[in-house]
Amino acid sequence: MLDLTGKRALVTGIANNRSIAWGIAQQLHAAGADLGITYLPDDKGKMEKKVKDLVEPLNPSLFLPCNVQDDAQITATFDAIRDQWGKLDILVHCLAFANREDLIGDFSATSRAGFQLALEISAYSLVSLANAAKPLMTEGGSIVTLTYLGGVRVVPNYNVMGIAKAALEMNVRYLASELGPQQIRVNGISAGPIRTLASSAIGGILDMIHHVEDVAPLRRTVTQEEVGKTAAFLCSDLSSGVTGQILYVDSGYNIMGM
Ligand code: NAD
Ligand code: 0WE
């Protein structure tokens, strides 16, 4: 049975009720995990209120601001975990960002600053969060991140995010190798396209979804709930022998050649 009772899980990347991280948090909660939730703070505190109201039914023991571009916020997040829990079992990394102008048109037009921003937020952040989690994962642990096929194959307009996901997937392997002796597993879920805040801002996402419905073996897109269930599996003892892997939750789309 999938049982996360007594496990302490930090979930990043919830922005609203469509976020993949929200689907994951719900499944971890249903399996009995104790949750810590982080959100991206903004000037007006709108995100804080919105996410706080959303996650209230999951009774998180920790609710903290964490902009991964700010080392002080990362340190404060893990200091709070140490004070409240003393240890950590699960880290869910479910965030990405690139400038909107870099997700359209010519990839070769990507600016140095845009490249740095996308790789810092979408790939480097897994390294910094894993490094902060490492000393707290004293009884082993599971780290799960979210990736996309555009990191392995060319998807029109995914552009610099594809490079960021390629880096992220290699981060998974290097981290899995380093943290394995401490029984910390590190895996990625490569999700098929899902309508979320991040993806809805992309022109043509609906056409992509229809394409998946036409060609994927399951002839449909996946849901946040399905990604959440796979995340719960990767966080649980059911996957105790699995590390350094990228698991596709995409209705089988990635196996098709035509
Ligand atoms: P989303 O907009 O709900 O989530 C993205 C999150 O990133 C937001 O919560 C946002 O606050 C957070 N974020 C951005 N910059 C941040 C920063 N500096 N510090 C902290 N948090 C920051 O969209 P989503 O689709 O749920 O995306 C979650 C993850 O899933 C991303 O890694 C994305 O690449 C991946 N993914 C999405 C799809 C899809 O089709 N939606 C498919 C495969 C993978
Ligand atoms: O990883 C993603 C989306 C990540 C993302 C989305 C945005 C939109 C708003 C990162 N940064 C931003 N910046 C913004 O200003 N996905 C896997 C979803 C996605 O995005 C695409 C896709 C798919 C699928 C972009 C182009 C083509 C396909």
Please characterize this protein's 3D structure.
The chain has 8 helices and 7 strands. The chain is an alpha/beta fold and 258 residues long. The protein has one domain (8-251): Rossmann fold, CATH 3.40.50.720. The protein has a 7-stranded parallel sheet, sandwiched between helices. Helix 1 (20-30) crosses helix 8 (224-235), helix 3 packs parallel to helix 4 and helix 4 packs parallel to helix 5. The termini are far apart. The structure holds nicotinamide-adenine-dinucleotide and ligand 0WE. Nicotinamide-adenine-dinucleotide binds at residues 13-15, 19-21, 40, 66-69, 94-97, 121, 146-148, 191, 193-194, 196-199.
Notable characteristics:
about 260 residues, alpha/beta, Rossmann fold, seven-stranded parallel sheet, 8 helices, about 40% helix, binds nicotinamide-adenine-dinucleotide, binds ligand 0WE
Helix and strand arrangement:
Layout: E1 8-11, H1 20-30, E2 34-39, H2 46-55, E3 62-65, H3 71-84, E4 90-93, H4 112-133, E5 141-147, H5 159-179, E6 184-191, H6 197-200, H7 205-215, H8 224-235, E7 246-249
Parallel strand pairs: 1-2, 1-4, 2-3, 4-5, 5-6, 6-7
Summary, kept brief:
The protein is 41% helix and 14% strand. By secondary structure, the chain is an alpha/beta fold.
Oligomer category:
single chain
Q: Hey, roughly how much beta strand do the residues contain?
A: 5-15%
- What's the total count of β strands? 7
Judging from the principal axes of the Cα atoms, what is the shape? globular
Distance between the termini: 38 Å
Give the name of the CATH superfamily.
NAD(P)-binding Rossmann-like Domain
Report helical residue fraction. 40-55%
Indicate the CATH class.
Alpha Beta
* Largest sheet entry: 7 strands, parallel
Tell me the strand order in the biggest sheet: 3-2-1-4-5-6-7
Mean pLDDT: 97
Question: Helix and strand string, N-terminal first?
Answer: EHEHEHEHEHEHHHE
For the record, the CATH architecture stands as 3-Layer(aba) Sandwich
The secondary-structure class comes to alpha/beta
Q: What's the CATH topology name? A: Rossmann fold
Question: Which small compounds were modeled alongside the protein?
Answer: nicotinamide-adenine-dinucleotide, ligand 0WE
Number of domains: 1
